[in-house]
Amino acid sequence: GNTVTYDWKLEWMIAAPDGIARPVIGVNGQWPCPSIDVMEGDRVVVNVYNGLGNESTSLHWHGIHQKGTNHMDGPSGATQCPIAPGQSFTYDWIADQAGTYWWHSHNMGQYPDGLWGPLIVRDPNPPFQYDEELIITLSDWYNEQMPYIIHQYQSTDGAAEDGTPDPTGGALINSGRNVSIHVKPSTTYLVRIICPAAFSGHGWVIDGHNQTTVEVDGVYTEPIVATADGKNVRIAPGQRQSFLMRTKDDTSKNYAILDFMDPNMLFINKGQKPGPTYPLNATAWLVYNTSADYPPPPVLYNLGNNDFFDDVNYVPLDKEPLLEPVDRQLVIDMSMENITGISRYILNGHTYLGAKVPTLYSTLTVNESEASNPDVYGDINPYVFKYGEVVEVVMNNLHSNLHPMHLHGHQFQVIERSDPKAGTFSGSYSKLPAAPIRRDTIMVQNEGYAVVRFRADNPGIWLFHCHIELHVEAGFTATFIEAPEKLAASDFTIPADHINACKTYPMDYVG
Ligand code: C2O
């Protein structure tokens, strides 16, 4: 492949995607931030300069496995120190997985302030045909900046989840609330949907057009019409979904699109219902004809779980078989506690507090036998896996909200997901799929569970966390330490810019 180099200066700038001006983090004076768009096999080099002045940063390439390049994964505290204001830092990795991904800040709950963009790795021979492509991002939006929102969320007057500020700007499609998407007639579009939301999952309806899903989270699926029987497409924070859409031959009409925040999320239980007047939705139009009417969006009332296509039913096109037998089952009970007025998420009794030294560096500096001992790592919810074992993770969501759980370094197989309020996993599977769908993020239902599997064949430090950014800041993270003895035994040396980041940041690692 080629080497594709991006020189990115991160800076605050002013934008008003919902009409209300506020500071956002842009790249080279551009917001929404640019896409990374490369061919499968390309080497991607991103030279980052932190010009923010008041905040440190780090960048993560969501969904990219970083085989052999764990130190380029990006989460501060896990694989690197934060990049301080005024510092430069280079990310350098191989884009060896075709598909739809995204990049975002992985430091201090920062990405909802605008520091994210699409990451497209193109397949020279995709297993479907299309004429044109659309990249659509669906997000919630806030008129306050994240440091303030996080403070509110964790302040003593916010009673836990009720302290979540409502998204004041509502949902956004490609960073606007009323967006025209111009299409050609009689054309097959590949529509890549990315959900970089901070809090809410999104539903998505295009009037009069079917959506045939062909990819989720970088995994090709058997083509499935996800909008049959009036079902809506749902996408959770962190997820991607691509579909084929054939446009009409007739150009006399335009069609409305509704992007609505997931009505199953807690904040909507505050008494609001999705619909055209619901202030938190965004509308867009498939525009065939600029002189035709722009019709109102579809009316959706009392949407429930069953009104969404169940994405567990996707089948990977490669039919990769179920991983079995399971060598290691890890059960994680996930809950929230209001600890003296502060919302903290608890995984098997522990909240993630973070490490003073990036966990990867700890692994590299201890001896091989110590590396396998979870006790050396501190308050990071460490789980150590042996090289090559098949790990089954059971997530019991004891909480009353949905949680999109994301694993770095892998696409896990989705074995099963319960309905809301189904309780905890009993230990018996309702049905073991022959070829489970694989993805990197799964929405776990409120007071329900999900079961996933992966093979621990990617030595590294990989975070496993809820992709609701406020929940990350409230400790909803575990650290999967995969084959640490291989890292400890490697002759890998930490690059100078990584060591430099740790010297200026108040962490006690000195390279
Ligand atoms: Cu999209 Cu740990 O992140």
From TrEMBL:
Residues 14-125, 133-289, 356-485 form the Plastocyanin-like domain. Keywords: Copper, Metal-binding, Oxidoreductase, Signal. It comes from the Eukaryota. Belongs to the multicopper oxidase family. This is Multicopper oxidase. It comes from Aureobasidium pullulans. The chain holds residues 132 to 642 of 679 of the full protein.
